[in-house]
Amino acid sequence: MTGPLATRLTERFGLAHPIVLAPMAFAAGGRLAAAVSAAGGLGLIGGGYGDPAWVDAQFAEAGEDAAVGCGFITWHLRDEVLDGVLRRRPRALLLSFGDPRPFAPRVHDAGVPLLCQVQTVADARRALEAGAAVIVAQGAEAGGHGDRRATFTLVPEVADLLAAESPDTLLCAAGGVADGRGLAAALVLGADGVMVGSRLWATQEASVSDAMQAAAVAADGDATVRTSVMDIARSLRWPERFTARVLRNRFTDTWHGRERELRESGADAAREWSEGWAAGDPDRSNTFIGEATGLIDAIEPAATVIERMAGEAATALAARRPDRSR
Amino acid sequence: MTGPLATRLTERFGLAHPIVLAPMAFAAGGRLAAAVSAAGGLGLIGGGYGDPAWVDAQFAEAGEDAAVGCGFITWHLRDEVLDGVLRRRPRALLLSFGDPRPFAPRVHDAGVPLLCQVQTVADARRALEAGAAVIVAQGAEAGGHGDRRATFTLVPEVADLLAAESPDTLLCAAGGVADGRGLAAALVLGADGVMVGSRLWATQEASVSDAMQAAAVAADGDATVRTSVMDIARSLRWPERFTARVLRNRFTDTWHGRERELRESGADAAREWSEGWAAGDPDRSNTFIGEATGLIDAIEPAATVIERMAGEAATALAARRPDRSR
Q: Which of A217, B2, B62, B244 is positioned for an S-S bond with B30, CB 3.0–4.6 A?
């Protein structure tokens, strides 16, 4: 397949567009992953914290013929969960948030392309040691979990690292990529493609409540915060460097900066958060989305988003051709 | 003048390249501003905290014929300092970090183009109310003072705002733009040009110590931190939302997260910081630079940096033309 934005990523994975679905825990189920792959991107199921029953159900929902992959939260992954997915021969296996090296041999042995999402240059060096086929450089503007570096500087810096040390390793940009301008910018910054979270979270196929999607559509990009309070509420022991970007609301306004207090005496608040989360309530729990929420104004089918993103990117690049007459 | 990257910014200001020097306090003196303007960009003297004697000296060093402007830290600006600079008929006047509206009428009355650097969409709306000719959208990856939003999402979101509400207002991207890839990415994200800080801080004409420049060249982009501790050490009462990005060192490792203690009992540490700053010592004080430090590997003349940035941007855009044969 070739599209208007053919890159090494589209060639290597047989894609129409250099767009990979971020394997967002809970939100990127089989339905969304299959829709992205059917639209010419690479769909990844959000294996998240590694619940085998949920992952099995998502692969079933995607369907036997869906060319989808899967992603996991590395620090929370167990060998047997990884092996269970690898037996399905996923199109790709992504690891993020932790050291991928202990798991990499199993992925390589299965003949599955290893994608490593990284948040720093130091992470990227570790991903090269793990033998990543694709490094996904994720900036802090991303929704959900991430670290501190920004997409705009991390992508070219990792591109320089790969050019010097591993030129066959591909590079995707993640964090803030929500339209054709972002896709085009990622390519000129040195990426071979993009990983898209928030914009595909805000589609009809995503496993997200209507109320949370409506909250995201209504918000501008100033309305998010990167914090750990929802992980404390869920009793998830994330490594300290990884916080999550969500829409600010009463919960984050109350507890962000008071993490110790929430941990020690916030049981009622934590229970209310969890009940709100189960109900998909953006006021009582939190809506996981990035700064790109300010670029999203409708909930559409994933294929519509992907086609428009690719078309707009081609237009943005054509409009900026340096040889254009003005 | 026209260069390979002609935009509305180059046309409006008569530039060869769509590159504006960030008016970095202390570092962007008359010598650097004049060098940037002579190279076809728009040089802005870093009026900073508004010391009239220093600003006068910088305009004198730039020279009578230098088409340079000046920038100020808005929350620290006084009317008489602004008026003193406006009487010099600067090429442009930039305000950042605070509400520009109280000062805007004086700038308009002087017939000087008003540039407003903004850190959020809310700031951008305020800059439109101030009648800005150019809005500079600054991401948190920038060196020195800034806020939380990222360049990659803030630029297209502000571009959408301007398209809807004030299409004649120009837009520059700031924060992380250090080479031709960044310039090209900013243009496809919707900017008419870029404001460059760190990369021009790291030039021969900048008023920066050799030791600090050497520290920046040696650092990768993971090595910075956004913090307030150096402002506490200097007794500068910055509004809480604005922190500054610097190279991490012993001082930031010791005090970041212990701001109250530094304020209450850190007099010795503050004195040592100030002595280190006066000496240009990157170990005892701090090196103000952004994440782009990881993209900088030499101290060169400003003209060399600007010419290469423009040339590389044209190349990056040409290489990504969607109609290229592969």
A: B62
Cβ-contact A169, A135 below 8 angstroms: yes
Rg (CA), chain A: 19
Contact (CB<8Å) A149/B291: yes
CA distance A209 to chain B (A): 24
Whole-number Å distance between alpha carbons of B45 and A169: 42
pLDDT (tens digit, 9 = 90+) per residue, A272-292? 999 999 999 999 999 999 999
CB B120 within 8 A of CB B154: yes
In single-letter form, the type of residue at position B199 comes to R
- Distance from A165 to chain B by nearest Cα, in Å? 16
Beta bridge partners of A160: none
Beta partners for residue A93, in sequence order: A70, A114
Evaluate if residue B117 carries a pLDDT over 70: yes
Distance CA A297, CA B187 (A): 23
Two structure tokens written together for A250: 């009463």
Residues of B in contact with A149 (CB under 8 A): 141, 221-222, 291
> Pick from B4, B150, B182: which is nearest to A176 by CB?
B150
Q: Are A37 and A66 in contact (CB under 8 A)?
A: yes
List chain A residues with CB under 8 Å of B149.
141, 221-222, 291
For the full predicted model, state whether its pTM sits above 0.95.
yes
Q: What's A113's DSSP letter?
A: P
Give, in order, the Cα–Cα distances in Å from A120 to each of A44, A196, B158.
22, 18, 27
**Alpha-carbon distances of B234 from B41, B245, B268, rounded to whole Å:** 32, 15, 12
CB pairs under 8 A between A and B: 150
Span B214-272, pLDDT tens digits: 999 999 999 999 999 999 999 999 999 999 999 999 999 999 999 999 999 889 999 99
Cβ neighbours of residue A278 under 8 Å, at least 6 residues apart? Answer: none
Can you say whether the dihedral through the CA atoms of A110, A201, A139, A257 is positive or negative? negative
Are A198 and A174 spatial neighbours (Cβ–Cβ below 8 Å)? no
CA angle in degrees (0–180, nearest 5) for B178-A127-A100 = 140
